[in-house]
Each structure stands twice: as C-alpha cells, then as structure tokens.
C-alpha cells in the first residue's frame, strides 16, 4: 500500500438485510489529510465511516464484503479485535457523548481500559489531550467537575480529546458540528485543521461549506455509490460528474 | 426544481448583456465618427461612458453579494467570478472606445491622410470579436469563444499593417503628416486592444463552461 495512504477501501459492499447500502466502494484515505464525505441522506456516507472502525457490527443482520486495509490489517475481518481498531481509529459523533463522569475521568478512561495505572503518566496524557483539543485553558481548574456541565461545543472537544488520549492515528467525525452554534463550529473546524498535522481525519458532513473549509479531499456518495473523489478545490470548482455538480450546486431532486 | 439563485443568475446575465450592448454601440459610434468627425457626437460618446462605468461597479457589487450570501459552487461559482472579470473587460473596451473618439476629435477639421482600408477591417474585427465573445458567454458556447481567441492574431497583423504604412509611407517621408497619422496609428492600437479584451472574455467563457484554463496556454485550445 502507498505509504501516503492511511486507509484503503477495496471493493466494499455492505448490506442491511437485503438492502445494498454500499456498492463496490474503492477509496483511499490519505495520511495527515482531511477527507470529507458528502452526499444526501441515505447515500451511505455514515454507513461507510462507521465501517472504518467496525461500528456497523453493532447492528444486527448486516453483511460486508471487500477489504478495508489499515495498519496491515483488514479492518472488516471479524478476527481482528474491534477494540484495538477503535483505539487506533477514534470516532466523534453528531451529538457529544461524554460519559457521566468527571472531565478528568472522561479522558483517562481509555488509558485505564488499556491497563495503565501510573497516575502521573495518566495526568500528563490527560493534560496533553485537552491541550491538543484546545480545551485545557477552559477546564484546567475544574477537572473534577462533571463533563455534563460543559457546553455542547466543549463536550464535543472533550470527545475529541478522548480520542487523542489513547493515541488514535485516525479520527472519524460524523457530523460533528450538527448540534453546535457557529462559534463552537468554528472552534471544531480550527481544531480539525490543527489536528491533521498529527492525525488522519475523515469527516461526514451535510454542510458543504464546512467540507470546503476543512477538507483536502472530498468524496461524493449517492445511493450507495462513490460518484466522485478528488481534491476538494476541484470537486467544488470543477466537478467532473454531472451528479456531483447537481448536488453541490443544490440542483438535486 | 428551479432555485432562487437561478433567477438571480439570469438577471445578472441580462445586466451583463445590457452592458455589452452599450459597449458594442460605443465602439460602433466612436469608429463611425471617423467618417465625419463631429465634436457634438464625440462629446456624447465620452459622456455616455459614465453609464458603463456605473454598470461595472453595480455588477461587481452584485457578484460580491451573491458570493457572500449564496456561497455558490462549481458552475455557479465560475459563472459569478467570470461575470466580474467580464464586466471589467467590457468597461475597458468602453474606455478604449472613448480613447478612439478622442483621437477622432484630434482629426476634426483636418482632411483624412489617406483613404482608410485596414482600419475599417480592424473595426469590423473588433466589433465581431466583442459580439461573438458575448454571444459565447450568453450561450455557454466554448467553440465560439475558441474562434474569438484564434482571431486575435489577425487583429495584431492588421494593427502592424496600419502602423507600417503610416510610418513608412507617410511620417518617414513627410514628418508634417504626423498630426494626421498619429491619431490613426493610435486608433489602430486601441482597436487591437479591444480585440485583446474580447479575447480575455472568450478565455473566461471557456473557463466558465469547461473549467479549462486556456489563458496563457494557447496549446490547450486544440
């Protein structure tokens, strides 16, 4: 696999029962780049991103064929430990989902699950993750407070910090700003641009302007097919496929 | 499903066309005045340029509003950004029409140095190239735009012919002819510049339609 590629999807097909949700998807996710996945509701973009850290296996009666290569593994192979995959490929969801615990415990939880007990090591990891997630200054004096007291935007950055603490290599964002105000959205977007120096990022978004602002590559999905993939500036200024053009200019339907 | 933006883009196109029609008229009137130089007519041409200047500003402002408020993508984005550039070229063509009128003013009351042969040819070429560039814009016709670009060499050749004839056959032999030769020489130069601006518009049309950059890359026209 090309050393610039972090994740490689090869001929991925995914079924919910008899519904063919993803059709022969071939897609390369580049290292230290932001890849946006866009498309109308039901196009398969969330299904695809959830496959990247095996979240789909939590849904019953599903079937997947093809390969998703990462770190020498085929992610969709059930013999690969899903917990290991999720440690390396973290996910941030549409609605912030902090644990009903303290800010500190939210970040340290993953480390404890890994069996780490060294308190000072954990403290330094928590501080580092919160700093990287641009949240440290806002919470450093109240680490013992419940994470549920934080604002929506802060909770979302806390969830990002949670991925960073366990040293994920890839972070998946599924509509991370859907429930945030414009200021919190701007902070998350700035953070994504900052994080791509160290991480590979995949973001699913309905907000085309957001995709244009934060991503380097864009993939357009429609009815389970990957219609077009390319550099973001090309997709948004000169898309090759008329279906992509119709979607991004709002002429769809 | 028709979008609100479609109506706005149609209105913008209409406004550019209106500006284009005024510019074509300005070229026609300014060069036409050569046949019978008339101060009053020339002053009208010069004063009407203000209308075109105002239209350029209005179109620029309109395009900026559309970019900020509608956040267009793909063909819409290319159409709006190219509209801004095309309005600038149209305004420059109108300025050149004024420059021509002013040079005609220099000739008022003086007999023509020679019967005009190549300047009328250059005039027709400039008018046709401007018209075709605008037609290509309106109809999103990249082939017509391409033909405009390919005609630019002809304009350069005609300008050179006029220059050579005026310098070699008149000014070199009899320097007193300069007062009547120089305005003609400048008129040829201005007409050739109009053809350059029509070429710019045609290049912008090709980018708008096909997203191909042909500006400074003539080999891509093939």
Write up this protein.
The complex is a heterodimer of chains A (253) and B (222). Chain A has helices at residues 45-51, 82-88, 103-113, 119-132, 136-139, 152-165, 182-195, 208-214, 232-237, 242-248, and strands spanning 5-16, 19-30, 34-38, 62-70, 73-74, 89-92, 170-174, 200-204, 217-222, 225-231. By secondary structure, chain A is α/β, with parallel strands linked by helices. Chain A has a six-stranded mixed sheet, sandwiched between helices. A four-stranded antiparallel sheet of chain A has the order 2-1-4-5, with no helix packed on it. Chain A is globular, with a radius of gyration of 18 Å. Chain A starts with a strand and ends in a 5-residue tail after the last helix. Chain B is mainly alpha-helical. Chain B is built from seven helices and no strands. Chain B has helices at residues 4-32, 39-70, 74-107, 118-138, 142-150, 152-171, 178-210. Chain B is globular, with a radius of gyration of 19 Å. At the A-B interface, helix 8 and helix 10 of A face helix 3 of B.
Short structural description:
Chain A is of the alpha/beta class and 253 residues long.
Most extensive chain-chain interface: A-B, 14 and 12 residues
DSSP summary, beta strand count of chain B: 0
- How far is it from the N-terminal to the C-terminal residue of chain A, by CA? 39 Å
Largest sheet of chain A: 6 strands, mixed
- Secondary-structure class of chain A: alpha/beta
Share of β-strand residues of chain B: under 5%
* N to C succession of SSEs of chain A: EEEHEEHEHHHHEHEHEEHH
User: What is the rounded distance between the termini of chain B?
Assistant: 36 Å
Low-confidence stretches of chain B: none
Jot down its keywords.
heterodimer; A: 253 residues; alpha/beta; six-stranded mixed β-sheet; four-stranded antiparallel β-sheet; 10 helices; 36% helix; 26% strand; B: 222 residues; mainly alpha; 7 helices; globular
Topology, please?
The complex is a heterodimer of chains A (253) and B (222).
Chain A: E1 5-16, E2 19-30, E3 34-38, H1 45-51, E4 62-70, E5 73-74, H2 82-88, E6 89-92, H3 103-113, H4 119-132, H5 136-139, H6 152-165, E7 170-174, H7 182-195, E8 200-204, H8 208-214, E9 217-222, E10 225-231, H9 232-237, H10 242-248
Parallel strand pairs in A: 3-8, 3-9, 6-7, 7-8
Antiparallel strand pairs in A: 1-2, 1-4, 4-5, 9-10
Helix pairs in contact in A: 3-4, 3-6, 4-6, 6-7
Chain B: H1 4-32, H2 39-70, H3 74-107, H4 118-138, H5 142-150, H6 152-171, H7 178-210
Helix pairs in contact in B: 1-2, 1-3, 1-4, 2-3, 3-7, 4-5, 4-6, 4-7, 5-7, 6-7
């Amino acid at each position: 696999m090309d050393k610039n590629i972090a994740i490689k999807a090869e001929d991925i097909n995914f079924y919910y029962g008899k519904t063919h949700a993803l059709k022969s998807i071939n897609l390369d996710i580049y290292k230290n780049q932001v890849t946006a996945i866009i498309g109308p509701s039901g196009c398969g973009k969330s299904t695809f991103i959830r496959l990247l850290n095996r979240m789909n296996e939590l849904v019953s009666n599903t079937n997947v064929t093809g390969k998703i290569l990462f770190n020498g593994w085929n992610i969709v192979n059930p013999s690969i430990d899903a917990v290991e995959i999720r440690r390396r490929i973290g996910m941030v969801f549409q609605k912030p989902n902090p644990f009903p615990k303290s800010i500190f415990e939210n970040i340290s939880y993953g480390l404890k699950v890994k069996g780490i007990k060294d308190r000072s090591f954990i403290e330094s990891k928590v501080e580092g993750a919160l700093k990287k997630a641009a949240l440290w200054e806002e919470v450093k004096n109240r680490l013992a407070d419940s994470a549920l007291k934080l604002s929506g935007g802060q909770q979302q950055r806390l969830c990002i910090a949670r991925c960073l603490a366990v040293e994920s290599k890839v972070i998946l964002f599924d509509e991370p700003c859907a429930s945030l105000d414009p200021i919190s959205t701007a902070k998350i977007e700035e953070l994504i641009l900052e994080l791509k120096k160290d991480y590979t990022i995949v973001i699913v978004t309905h907000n085309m302007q957001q995709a244009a602002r934060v991503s380097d590559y864009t993939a357009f999905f429609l009815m389970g097919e990957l219609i077009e993939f390319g550099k973001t500036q090309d997709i948004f200024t000169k898309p090759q496929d008329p279906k992509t053009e119709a979607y991004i200019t709002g002429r769809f339907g | 499903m028709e979008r609100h933006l479609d109506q706005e883009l149609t209105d913008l196109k209409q406004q550019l066309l209106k500006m284009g029609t005024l510019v074509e008229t300005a070229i026609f009137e300014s060069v036409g005045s050569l046949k019978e130089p008339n101060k009053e007519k020339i002053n009208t041409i010069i004063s009407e340029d203000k209308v075109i200047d105002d239209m350029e500003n209005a179109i620029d402002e309109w395009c900026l509003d559309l970019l900020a408020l509608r956040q267009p993508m793909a063909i819409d984005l290319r159409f709006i950004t190219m509209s801004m550039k095309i309005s600038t070229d149209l305004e420059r063509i109108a300025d050149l029409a004024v420059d021509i009128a002013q040079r005609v003013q220099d000739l008022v009351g003086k007999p023509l140095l020679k019967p005009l042969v190549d300047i009328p040819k250059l005039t027709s070429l400039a008018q046709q190239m401007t018209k075709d560039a605008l037609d290509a814009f309106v109809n999103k016709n990249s082939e017509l735009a391409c033909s405009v670009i390919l005609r630019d060499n002809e304009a350069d050749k005609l300008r050179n012919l006029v220059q050579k004839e005026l310098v070699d056959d008149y000014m070199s032999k009899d320097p007193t002819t300069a007062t009547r030769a120089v305005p003609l020489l400048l008129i040829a130069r201005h007409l050739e510049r109009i053809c350059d601006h029509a070429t710019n518009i045609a290049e912008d049309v090709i980018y708008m339609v096909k997203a191909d950059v042909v500006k400074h890359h003539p080999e891509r026209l093939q």
